[in-house]
Amino acid sequence: MSTPGLTARYVRSDLRTTKGVHLALTALLVLSAFLMATGAMVAERLVGSIDRLFAVAQPPDFLQMHRGDYDPAALESFAAEHPEIEAWLVEEMLDVDGAALSWQRSGTGASGDLSESVMDNLFVVQNEEFDFLLDETGAIAQPDPGQVYLPVAYQQRYHLQAGDQLVVQTQAEPLVLQIAGFVRDAQMASSMSSATRFLVAAQDFQALERAGGAASEQIVEYRLTDGAAAGDLQRAYEADPDLPKNGQAVTIGMIRLLNALGDGLVAAALVLGSLVLMIVAVINLRFVIRGTLEDEIRDIGALRAIGIDHRQISALYLGKYVALTAIACVLGGALAVLATAALTRGMQASYAAAPVGVFTVLTPVLALGVLAAGVLVLCRGVLRRVRKTSVVGALVDGSTLSDRQLARRARRGTARARRHRLAAYRGTRVNAFLARLDLRAQARQWALVPIVFFLLSVLMILPMSLLSTFESPRFGTSIGAPDADLLVNLQFSEEIEDTRAQVLAGLQADERVGNVRVLATELREVPGQEGWETLRVQVGDHAGTGQEYLHGQAPGTGEIALSALNAERYQLTTGDTLPLRHTGQVSTAVVSGIYQDVTSSGYTAKLPGEPSTGAAGYAIYADVTGNVDPAALAAEYTDRFPTASVIDGEEYLGQTMSFVTRAFGNVALLAVAFALVVAILISGLFLSLQVKRDRERMGVLSALGFSHREIIGQVRGKALAAIVLGTLAGVAFTAAAGQWLIGGAVAAAGLGISELQLSPNLPLAYGAYPLVLITAGYLVTVLLTARLRGDSPSTWLRR
């Protein structure tokens, strides 16, 4: 009975009989398999791509950026005292303002400049020991004299090509370099990095240094025998007062995290989306299997009556769903291979082509295996009803329920009929009453629709809300960026105080500008595990910066505000005290507030007061008045003050988050598309089966005098009510718990964001998207029920 041949014949026969239902079910499984496999493959390719880049480029395990003079002997002494240091170097860099960089294409006459870039443009020569910049082939790039390698990010943004000319404006004559290619930078590939590197030959670097116009900067870099010890080395480094510290300190963990953030979000969103679709598929499978068993219960009873074992009967049904699942996994896996190639194209350009290995094949296979196992476990669970089915009940009553369950159902139906009197309703109220009564009587069956639309609305709204948050100006103030139209950054130089005075005078005299604030970056020392450690603080009036605080408020006299990572590092909360040492004098400050920050690696602090002479840098913020264009004003001030970096605030946030929004935007749109497709499939699948199951009931209503229009209206009303209920529940859940879900995931990433306030586009998230979802489901309902107009009521009463 259970031979493979018989099972195959049954599967073919059943699939031909109910093509529409099984096509919809297979399509749903294919979508789930596609997302599951794609998410797993993108994650595997991302890890492999970054690992391959890191293996060749060998980025530092710990680095300290610095501007100004430093003592090489102190660095030598520090390295000698720490045997865990495998190698170290000091990379000299020249920071050139983007306005001083332009490009030309001789063949077409196309040209442009890099003035819109908010990143520091650092010219370097190739390192000899580690931290290499790699060309497009993955080899260590070696430019010849007169050549330059630009970052891959600039190639993608400005559509640059090898052979173009890069012109560097200096205080002497312009330096013209030919673009030889584009480099992958393991250390500064992310847009969330504040700088990017240009690779030139040693003699061009020296020529640029002699010509003037570029600010000197250094990176002190360390490779360790054990990269996990980077945090310990950082604490020891910061505890040494003789070492250079005028800049950000970064560990290998933060470098890897920033590199993986954009595409990592893509992989996570795909996997979560696949889990949602898997739940939807499982719910629908359960509905389909139970419906099939109810439709064929007399056949099952006959088979049981002639002695066929329940396991053999279950095997027939299980074989069909095994076949559907296998087809879905093959199709979904094949589509995932194509999608992964498209989704990882930018990743391979920025990092490296990930090697193909055992895990490349094993990862999607395991992901599809999880999907298949989940589906088949559910099928086996539902098919247990075959074992529990009474032969007499199946043949006589045509039900899978036991005698006790049938009696209980009859009592409930009688009680319901007594509670509601049909005579009390007139006109259209009768149809509404019958539809409502039917929904209550068949609640278990109709529950599928609101559950599915609840999940689909979450799948549609949550990714788009997260994307809107990343693109929102409010997001900037929640991660440490100021709420300002203009940002002026002054890095350490011999003329920094004069430049600050000139920029301030210009802004304060400009009627187009108001609310000018100045913050100075200074260094303080605080007690750490190995003595006094360096703490970067911003000194000034923080009341008007728009900074949002997780706890507490902006610091006043005798107070300090800490970033979330610093508060965690020093185990402090609001109200605690923190000793501060500056120029040999020790004072105590009370922690007034804790805020989120992803700048300066997340380890920052804020102090009130007037800046002292010799600050490491200045940040000047201002707002424009009237209809003044901040971008045009920023360009004007850039021309007036070439040594200052003047940036449009909105452009700054957009470029900083572009690494995330560019990758995540495609996935958010994909989630919307998939939610709509699944809504159409599920509406069609459910209503096809439900209408078939309710034909006898519709025939009775027709015999009682109800018209086709009224019967169809009842079906549509039930479907619309279920769709609207599920969608609105999903909207409410997303509004109430979505922030908690997303915030927890982002906090676990360790970026210094412990709490994320979602900023959805309200008209879209809670208006347009739910309306589109409801419309899609209802249109399918209208199309399917329209076919009932041509049916004869007598056919509804036939079994």
Describe, in plain words, how this protein is organized in 3D.
The structure is a single chain. With 799 residues, the chain is an alpha+beta fold. Among the domains are: 57-258, no CATH class; 434-478 and 653-799, no CATH class; 494-642, no CATH class. An 11-stranded mixed beta sheet has the order 4-3-7-8-6-9-5-2-10-1-11. Strands 12, 13, 14, 15, 16, 17, 18, 19, 20 and 21 form a 10-stranded mixed beta sheet that branches. Strand 3 and strand 4 (111-113) form a beta hairpin. Helix 17 (448-471) packs across helix 25 (708-748) and helix 25 runs antiparallel to helix 26 (762-786). The longest helix is centred in the middle third of the chain and has 44 residues, at 252-295. It starts with a helix and ends with a helix. The mean pLDDT is 84.
The largest pleated sheet is described as: 11 strands, mixed
Physical arrangement of strands within the biggest beta sheet: 4-3-7-8-6-9-5-2-10-1-11
Beta-strand percentage range: 15-25%
Mean pLDDT: 84
Number of strands: 21
Molecular shape: elongated
User: How big is the Rg?
Assistant: 33 Å
| Low-pLDDT regions | none
Helical proportion? 55-70%
Number of helices: 27
Distance between the termini: 27 Å
The helix-and-strand class reads alpha+beta
Main location: membrane
Organism: Candidatus Ruania gallistercoris
Transmembrane segments: 21-43, 265-289, 321-344, 356-379, 446-467, 667-689, 719-742, 762-784
Domain ABC3 transporter permease C-terminal: 273-377, 670-785
